[in-house]
Write a structure and sequence with these properties.
Length: about 130
Amino acid sequence: MRAAKVDSTHSQVVAALRDVGASVTSLAAVGWGVPDLVVGWRKQNYLLEVKNEKGKLNPYQKAFHAMWNGQVCVVRTPDEALAAIGAIPSMPCCEYALEVWNVGKIHILHTPTPGQDLTRSLFPLAEVSR
């Protein structure tokens, strides 16, 4: 399998992480479902999969996330990436909160629109906890 192309928000996420002093290495060229970024922040390591607004995990990514015994976060915006590493509060000051969806070992950060219930629309067959 060849390495997948990076999502449109990839460079924005990398820039935001580096702006706060995080170490960032892109793993996007590795392919085979390996997350896009490894991020070092305050002596902790984070694996981040960067997706655009409508991006979905491909079968290789799903398999990697399922077998990985560590943390993996799927992020869609620079703010979600910063929240994933703890550089900004995970509950921003706005009319709705950043939600962390726990699906097995996969943590998906998502900023819903007010009143939006994503439990059934995103994960109709998965057991979801918040």
